[in-house]
Amino acid sequence: MANSSSSSIDLENVESVDLMSELLRRMKCSTKPDKRVILIGPPGSGKGTQSPVIKDEYCLCHLATGDMLRAAVAAKTPLGIKAKEAMDKGELVSDDLVVGIIDEAMKKPSCKKGFILDGFPRTVVQAEKLDEMLGRQGTKIDKVLNFAIDDAILEERITGRWIHPSSGRTYHTKFAPPKVDLVDDVTGEPLIQRKDDTAAVLKSRLEAFHRQTEPVIDYYAKKGAVANVHAEKPPKDVSAEVEKALSS
User: Fold this and answer.
1) What range(s) does the Adenylate kinase active site lid domain occupy (predicted)?
2) Which residues are marked as active site?
3) How many Cα atoms are found within 13 Å in the side-chain-facing hemisphere of 1?
C-alpha cells in the first residue's frame, strides 16, 4: 500500500498541464503498433537526429547501449556489477551481458510499445544473441533502418565540424561557416575540432563499421527486415523516408 500512497502524493505535485499532456500522449500511444527497430549506419549518418523523432512518433524507448551500461553500473544491478568487473580489467563487456542489460531495460513501462536500438548489434554474433533473447519472449526485430551514405560525404560532413568549447556552438566550414574563419561569431574565441572529427579517426571508425557492422545489414536483409534510407538527404527528407519504412 505504501507505494500507491506515495505515487498519489507524487501526482499531487505534478502540474495539471503535465498530467494532461502525459495522459494525451498515452492515449495517442495506445493506438500505435508495437515496433522493435534497429538503427544502423556509420558515424555521422544522422541516426542521432532521427532517433528522437522516431521515439516520439511511435512511443518507443531509446536504448543506447553505452548509456545503458553506464546506468547499470551506476545502479549496481547484478549485470552492472559484472560489467564493471570487465571494464575495470580493461576487457570488453561480453555480448551476453549487453543482451542481458537490453533484456532488463525492455521491461520498463516506457518500452511497452517497443524500442529503438542504436549502437547495437555491431556484429552478426551480437545480432544472433539479440534475436535469441527476443525469440524467448516471443518477439522479433520488426525493422532495421540502414542509414546508407557514401564515405566521401561523411568525411565532408564530419571533418568540417568545428565547435566553440565553452558554449557548445557548432559550425561547419561548408554548411554553417562562422563569419570569421575558425572563430566563434559571438565571443571571437577560437573554435576547436573534436578528436573524433578528424579524417584519421573517421577513417578507422569507418573501416571498423564496414568490416564488423555491414554484415549485420546482410544478416537482417535475409530476414526481410531491412529498409534502406538515403542518409545523405536533408533531415526532413530522411524523416519522411523513415516514416514510410516504419509504416509498411
Assistant:
1) 161-196
2) 47, 122, 161, 194, 205
3) 0
Q: Identify the CATH class of 33-247.
A: alpha beta
Look at residue 29 and give its three-state secondary structure.
helix
Say whether 167 sits in a helix, a strand or coil.
Answer: coil
Give residue-wise pLDDT tens across range 204-246. 999 999 999 999 999 999 999 999 999 999 999 999 999 999 9
At 191, list the grid cell: 573554435
Residue 62's φ and ψ, nearest 5 degrees, are: -100, 115
pLDDT tens, position by position, 113-131: 999 998 899 999 999 999 9
What Å distances lie between residue 217 and 21, 84, 227, 233, 242, CA to CA? 38, 30, 10, 20, 16
d(CA 127, CA 120): 8
Beta bridge partners of 37: 116, 143
Please classify residue 162 by burial: count the beta carbons closer than 10 Å to its beta carbon, then call 0-12 exposed, 13-18 middle and 19+ buried: buried
- Length, in residues, of the chain: 248
Give the full edge-to-edge strand order of the sheet including 226-230. Answer: 61-64, 114-118, 35-40, 143-148, 226-230
